[in-house]
Amino acid sequence: MYIEQLKNKKYSLGSYIPIPLGFILLMFFNFLMSDGVDTNEVIQQTISMIGVNLTFVVLVGPLAFGLLLVLFWVKFVQGQTLRSLTTSRAKVDWKRIFFSFFLWGTITTAMILVLYYTQPENFVWNFKPEKFFIFLILAIILVPMQTSFEEYLFRAHMMQGIGLATNSRLIPLIVTSVLFGLMHIANPEVGKIGYIIMVYYIGTGFFLGIMTLMDEGLELALGFHAANNLVGALLLTADWTAFQTNSIFKDLSEPSAGFDVLTPVFVIFPILLFIFSKVYNWKNWKEKLTGKLIVTNEIDTVANDSKL
After folding, report:
1. Distance (Å, rounded) from C-alpha 238 to C-alpha 254?
2. According to the model, what pLDDT value does residue 34 have?
3. Contact 192, 200 (CB under 8 A)
């Protein structure tokens, strides 16, 4: 199983602390520095100086680099295999990654197009071929690295470390989900919508954490997160979001706490979990989400490995 598989190895719990602690301290420092500062205004000033695409690189690049740091640490400092960091299966299931990516990418595209055709007054055509295709290349490279960094940090490195330290599944689910949400507290969306949007960020953390624990691997979360950020960035931008890009459409509407915050967490995400549970035959929800770690002599590393 995803966390249990490491109980048979002699990993130092202390080796799980430096990267999460360093990131939390950096996150706290950034929050203090941004307190009282209009983050969106800073982004707009940066865009006016170096342009949209370079601003995107400046914002996303450090997180993309963070992926390399986490993978290097796990592989060469902890001595843990990248396979065991990613999944409990005998090998990484790329079909799961692509299924999750294309499922959520298709749903996201459909929702944006429906809004565009039903509420055309809220959108403008933002497509500028030269700038868009440069951004497309940058996004295809950097966004999956950025989202994978967040998944490998929270749902892999931290979840496994906290799970081993507490012999629990529920504690790492709660801690990593809350920290994942708090990571976004300095985003300009918070200033625009208010702290109610933390329900969305923390709720997304719980959704990705539940997905990881139930599926005994990170693959579905990797695919979903990459699709969420990449497809969204390519299709739609707004002047009040963290990702202000050379996308195809621009949203002129005012965000609402109901549709933009509550609907995904309490309607869409539960439906997605239901779909995944049927496709991959998830069972024993209570034990997998709240139970203690159970270690047997032979851990079935291909449990729930249903194929599409």
Report:
1. 10
2. 66
3. no
pTM: 0.92
Residue 269 in contact with residue 200, Cβ under 8 Å? no
pLDDT of residue 41: 85
Paired tokens of 41: 């205004």
| C-alpha–C-alpha distance, residues 298 and 166, integer Å | 22
150-169 burial, b for 16+ CB within 10 Å, e for fewer? bbbbbbbbbbbbbbbeeebb
Of the candidates 213, 223, 287, the one whose C-alpha atom is nearest the C-alpha of residue 2 is 213
Q: Estimate the crossing angle of helix 170-182 against helix 159-166, to 10 degrees.
A: 140
- Going across the sheet that includes 249-251, the strands are 123-125, 249-251, 236-237
CA distance 16 to 162: 8
Indicate the pLDDT class of residue 28, thresholds 50, 70 and 90.
confident
| Amino acid at site 71 | L
- For residue 18, what are the CA distances in angstroms to 13, 24, 25, 76, 171? 10, 10, 10, 14, 19
d(CA 255, CA 268): 17
* DSSP H stretches of helix in the chain: 18-34, 39-50, 52-72, 82-86, 94-118, 129-150, 159-166, 170-182, 188-193, 198-215, 219-235, 257, 263, 269-280, 285-290
Pick the range with the lowest mean pLDDT from 3-7, 10-14, 245-249.
10-14
Question: What's the distance, CA 5 to chain centroid?
Answer: 23
Residues contacting 155, CB < 8 A, separation 6+: 176, 208, 209, 212, 218, 221
- What pLDDT digit, counting tens, does each position of 98-108 carry? 999 999 999 99
pLDDT above 90: residue 252: yes
Please identify which residue in the block is written with the tokens 């940066």: 46
Q: At what angle do helices 159-166 and 198-215 cross, to 10 degrees?
A: 70
